[in-house]
Amino acid sequence: MSEFDVLRFLAIGQYLPSGSVLHRLDPRVKLTGIALFALALMLLASPTRALLGLVLALALLAAARVPLGHALRGLRPLLPLFVIALVLQVLFYPHREAVAAGSLAVLAWGPLVVSGAGLVGLGTMLLAMVDVVFLLTLLTAIADVSDITHGIEGLLRPLQRLGFPAHELSLMLVVALRFVPLLGQELERLLKAQAARGGDFGRRQGGIVQRVRRTLPLLVPLFLAALRRSEELVEAMESRGYTGGKGRTNLVRLQLRPADAVALFLVGCAGLLFLVVDFGPAEESVADWLRGLLTGA
Amino acid sequence: MSAPLIAVRGLEYTYRPGTPFATAALRGISFAVYPGEVVGIIGPTGSGKSTLLQHLDGLLRPQAGTVRVGDLDLADRATDLRAVRTRVALLFQNPEDQLFEQYVADDVAYGPLQLGLPRDEVRARVRRAMAAVGLPAEVYGDRLTQGLSGGERRRAALAGVLALEPQVLVLDEPTVGLDPRGRHELIALLQDWRCQADRAIVWASHAMDEVALLADRVVVLDEGRVALEGTAREVFGRDAALAALGLEAPAVRQVLGALVQAGLLPPSDALTVEEAVPLLESLVGQSDLGETAVPTVSAS
Questions:
Q1: How far is B206 from chain A (nearest CA, A)?
Q2: Which residues partner with B40 through β-bridges?
Q3: pLDDT digits (tens, 9 = 90+) for A68-77
Q4: Are residues A177 and A287 in the same domain?
Q5: Interchain CB distance below 8 Å, B100 and A189
Q6: A217 closest CB neighbour out of B54, B100, B164
Q7: What does the pLDDT read at residue A279?
Q8: Above 50 in pLDDT, residue A10?
Q9: What confidence tens digit (pLDDT) does each residue in A166-200 have?
Q10: Chain A closest CA to B253's CA: distance in Å?
Q11: Closest alpha carbon within chain B to A194
Q12: What is the pLDDT, as a whole number, of residue A183?
């Protein structure tokens, strides 16, 4: 295991070309579908919706043939966040009031009270986070860099007529996305080169100035490398005839196909399901089931 | 033969193990580096040269097998890497990219300062290291690093590593991107350096001519394994084996090989231009050469 392998845990960001039906959708559909899904999860969070979100996300990951292990590995960077969220919820949620209002007292240990409602709130939040991570993993697994940028440019194109710099923005996005792994590799090389000279980047002691000074052997060359690459990129683009976005056409023309229409229809259905699942008998039964779990545990 | 400075046995290493992106870079490498010698490591791209070099100073740890630097075992997590890096110093490809200080002397001083040496000692080492690379501290110490030429920056980076005063210098393609004069200068200073004390150099390169010139022993890697090993003469004499691995022989061997094939010269193990000259002179003396078909040596 190398301590220098910086790109290791970026399960988000790995394109997995498995040729599934999801891969072949129009990139605009991929982007809007997943964006709406993620928005819905974050804005309309509730226990049932978070669970439904999980089921849908897993189903989509399976449809895209993303290995489950890969998706789960993308959750690892979140673990510290989960722990922090747990601690915060235990400390700052109005547990006593909730218990007084009828919620179950899951833990009553001296001054510390943890209510069922608090836990459910925490669980919903965590589950929603997990769902969003899965969605991001899905998005990058089914859409590679050029897909995403075509999609964004395609979606923003109508705004171009209003003077919105859609082309320049998507160009910035392409270049940034392309440079991130390149600079990541550059950083890894620098880490190794400076470590080979005795540089120690693991130490946490020393004042803030000292710690910043310690990163200079990495930051300065990295900046220089980024600037150097940008200059080379600009020269390369200009010598191939790039003169800005005006009047520029694409080799790949985006066209919506029947599969896309089906996908959009399914997204619509899922959306409706999302809205409905919290109103009416569905909520009752799921809530009962959850309550049963907690009391039984 | 005295004890090896570095001993590698059965070294294995895989990148990103357990993921869909796993690549086995080293599959059981064994070799040793003895005091006073230059070991050349050659092999096609992807054969594991860089991975191997990074194991020699502890940047990468063996997943199986052992790497011992003197009495320090690099497979042991508790080994102090700082101690290892005072004995084995690694210079990466295009090392001028790692210069970060504004002034040359400051950058050369980075290594010794990190080792926690007292200021006087650091100053002395910087002076010695810069002298060793032909950039005397009095003249170049206060120059801006970005103001030096490419070759000078590379030598400054080398000075930064020599200032650690290692026993073994490990170099990854040190001459790549230099013009011929820059290459000659660099090779000359490395030869000077290694002649002092019981130092050794490990040199990974694609430039066969340089390896043929400088290396005492050569290790040929192919797909993570040692394909050939022996003295430079032995290894470069195996033209067919090298060609099968996709490696081009040094220019001298190619020319001599073509002449041997045409039946004009007996096979020899001449490796350098100096050794080839008498053989070619013997040819020039013959008056009955006439029109002999000599197979052409393709330009590299």
A1: 20
A2: B203, B218
A3: 888 888 888 8
A4: no
A5: no
A6: B100
A7: 60
A8: no
A9: 788 888 887 887 787 788 888 888 888 888 888 77
A10: 35
A11: B98
A12: 86
Do B66 and B111 share a domain, yes or no? yes
Q: Do A221 and B20 touch (CB under 8 A)?
A: no
> Hunting for tokens 């194109």 — which residue is that?
A157
> Does residue A154 belong to any structural domain of this protein?
no
* Full residue range of the structural domain in which residue A245 is found: 168-252
Under an 8 A CB cutoff, do B90 and A196 touch?
A: yes
Would you call A67 an interface residue with chain B, using a CB distance cutoff of 8 Å?
yes
| CA-based nearest distance B148→chain A, Å | 15
Question: Could you read off the pLDDT of A81-126 as tens digits, one per residue?
Answer: 888 888 888 888 787 777 777 667 767 777 777 777 777 788 888 8
Q: Look up the pTM and report it.
A: 0.70
Q: Within this chain, do residues A104 and A175 fall inside the same structural domain, yes or no? A: no
Asked if residues A135 and A38 have their Cβ atoms less than 8 Å apart, the reply is yes
Of A198, A199, A225, the CB nearest to B97: A225
Q: Do A198 and B20 touch (CB under 8 A)?
A: no
Q: Which of B53, B177, B159, B32 is nearest to B105 (CA)?
A: B159
State the residue range of the domain holding B271: 252-285
Q: Is A239 on the interface with B (CB under 8 A)?
A: no
**Whole-angstrom Cα distance, residue B259 to residue B236?**
16
A221 at interface of B, judged by CB pairs closer than 8 A:
yes
Lowest-confidence range among A20-29, B42-51, B290-299? B290-299
Taking residues A16-33, report their average pLDDT. 88
DSSP assignments along B105-165, one per residue:
HHHHHHHHHHTT--HHHHHHHHHHHHHHTT--HHHHTTSBGGGS-HHHHHHHHHHHHHTT-
Chain A: closest CA distance from residue B89 (Å): 6
| Ramachandran sector of residue B145 (left: φ over 0; alpha: ψ -120 to 50; beta: rest) | alpha
Which residue did the predictor score with more confidence, B175 or B20? Answer: B175
